[in-house]
Amino acid sequence: MPDAERGARIPRATYRLQLNSGFTLRDATALVPYFARLGVSHLYCSPYVRARPGSSHGYDVVDHNSINPEIGTPEDLEQFVRALRAEGMGHILDWVPNHVGVMGADNSWWMDVLENGPASIYAQFFDIAWENVDPALAGRLLVPVLGDYYGNILERGELALRFEPEAGSFAIFYHEHRFPVDPREYPRILERALAQPLLAQLGEEDRADFSSLIAAFGHLPDRTSRATAALEERNRDKEVHKRRLVRLCARAALLPEAIAAAIHDLNGRASDPASFDALHELLESQAYRLAYWRVASDEINYRRFFDINDLAALRMENETVFDATHRLVLELIAAGKVDGLRIDHPDGLYDPAQYFRRLQARVGQLPGTDGDAAHLPLYLVVEKITARFEPLRDDWPVHGATGYRFANVVSGVMVDHSGRARLDRIYRSFTGSALEWREVVHETKRLVEDTSLAAEVNVLASELRAIARAARSTRDFTQSSLRQALAEVIACFPVYRTYIAASVSAEDRKYIDWAVAQARRRKSATDTAVFDFVGTILLGEGPAKLPEIAAAARRFAMKFQQVTAPVTAKGIEDTALYRFDRLVSLNEVGGEPEHFGTSVREFHTDARYRARRWPHELLATSTHDTKRSEDVRSRINVLSELPGEWRRALERWSRINRPRRRMIDGEPAPSANDEYLLYQTLVGTFPLQGAAALAQGASAADYAERLAAYMVKAVREAKVRSSWANVNGAYEEAVQGFTREVLEPRAGNVFLADLEALAQRIARIGLFSSLSQTLCKLTAPGVPDIYQGTELWDFSLVDPDNRRPVDYAHRGRLLRETSVPAQDCNARRALLGGLLDRLQDGRAKLFLIWRALQVRAALEPLFTRGGYLALRVRGAHASSIIAFMRHHAGQAAITIAPRLYARLLTEGSALPLGPAVWGDTWIELPRAGQAGMLTNDLDGVGVPVREFAGRHGILAVDALASFPVALLVGRLT
Description:
eight-stranded parallel beta sheet; 36 helices; six-stranded antiparallel beta sheet; about 45% helix
């Protein structure tokens, strides 16, 4: 582990803010005192460099080197940082190196590429395949932006050529999209202007200058030239000629009119298809080819962020690109305005390890930086999804991941594994299908490869075919067989990607061998030699060792890695997780629903590993990417404890709501699977105030619309009855109508009353479970991260639902009410009683977060450098408690977090407290270093250490006397 003390400033706890035009840097600055009182050490901001206008998330960056004016100004950022420093707080920025927003008209690099093609000074910034087997795309960029087929768009007059007199340039516009015209092609326009009758009045000198200028544009070096001198000449002279055109238009008043007349002729008339021939010829002469957006899946020739056409990937492995995109952020780090970065989507990078090393090295070279690359001068966490068996790479100079694994582990430990078989049967019975997770994943990954990311697989297959032709033993492999083999290997890949660079690690070899073996088994009809060839190329063996193809084979292996990641992400996160709905609290980013929950032993194993290897990585329970908030998952988890009640409820609800279903295309709408998803979602999100809250009109409409919008997104992501690419309007309307009808707050809605009865019972159990997972996050090894608004109960669904405005004024009032002095035990216990009496208002969660963060601040070395010890629990309810100790320099903090609350409350107890619940359950303390005195920080009361047959420990009933969870602190003797 890097020596953190010599390098980066490690956060104590972070709070994630989603900045946008509705919540700006000024808004965040005003709230800094609240966050300081809450106890976080760093505010962790979504991207605030310039993004697409109206962006609600900031990931569609168009300029890495300026502040987004919708979020604030440099002065606003200065005030924000000053406010943080006044409270002793720091700042982490979400950073997006993999891609930039394109299309539109606001990305200057992209505009230059469109104008100049391969001759652009930014051509190498983007991952564009300029060489293409399709002659129509050789040296050209496919721009899939049109809403209909190109010919239809053209002949409807939706493509409009315009003159930009201030810049002396021409561009074609399609709605908000701008497509610059190649300056070498300006003569097509300007010669038409020169031929306009009104220019007969133009003076001889002006006419001569205009003719000379037309010739100058026509003699610019061709954009396909690779000669350095030609590129420099073109990029210099085109701007000189544009400025001449500006001056000439200013001097000769008739010229702009003639240009306007020429443009009018070129733009054609919708009533005359032939009138668009000239505009079509002009478009065909450009460095780009405009196309229907659907064409992208088959023919796109630039790398994207997943399948999003208007997010183009950057070649961050190019040092020039790195320097060009990191100027501002390095300045902010050097000025002490940014203390750490969260790196978005590193799996999209060609060589993530190289990127992290370069970033740490650059920071280490900044004046005044405390540390060097060897000691990680910058706090750096990466958005990386790992499989359960996959460790984060040891050679990455980072502080860890952003908490997806922890979110699944801590939520999973609240799942009752014994309910798996019954929930399997319930799901199969209700849906009429026997979905298996692994098969669903394989099917959805193949679907993605054949549709939205087909072009990426096609490009790989073409490159592999070229490599195969270079060796006698493989030249007979066909393009078709190679593509089939590649697609199957990718579909069988057990992790998001490998990280091959100069060599192949043992881990990467294991994953490649596994994928090739599984693909060979699934595609037994395909020549096994083809699979052998794919494996040897990826591993750098066999033909890949031949000098003539070694370099190409290694490039192929590294490009292959950039395809497996988006296929896996689109196949699992954006498809499979919306198809396999057995228990959707398990369907989380980075989750594996096949693994039904987490055992307490697995929880401890994960924590020990993190304490040893990644003690400073983020711990998340909700993020801007999660499919459901932490509190929604906690409620749905309860279904694993109550399978019988769940089955009976489903039977009643299906029967009650049968008349609300419709038949679309001969099948029920919603489908049984979508209806099953909706019922779980209702259980997870139903208002704590019950149906009474829905009777208030606006609240009912808001909730129903939120759920209806969510169901449409879920249906499209599943890609079964509808999808983003092929919207089935009739089916979606039926699903939305069903959702609204079942939630209609009217007399006689039997379903709503029945839902409320079960949802409120489950909700109460889920709230206790939420408290347990919250305390685990706040005290386990790592840096706890709080997603905006989740310091109170939050029942948000996937974005954009989880980006709704947060009522911070309300939270501020509640925090002041719960901030009882630590030394006033009586007041603290009275407060806790009130919190539990009014559990629905969320103050219990807020209080727990506040107190735990105060403990982290008071005992900071214990949590940043302390060890982790799992504590054994004994007695009647031993399996219902997670207990662990953090220890350092004689100081200890013990977490006691119950789980599976439904079984604890079966005897009619309203609260999981007291002897009737816990009986003889006790937590054993370690033999070496007994605790001399323990105090429950939550209520301020001392907890006695007792002797149990020669062992020392604490009774659960003592620790859990006044609150469902306990945080004990004390000295070790």
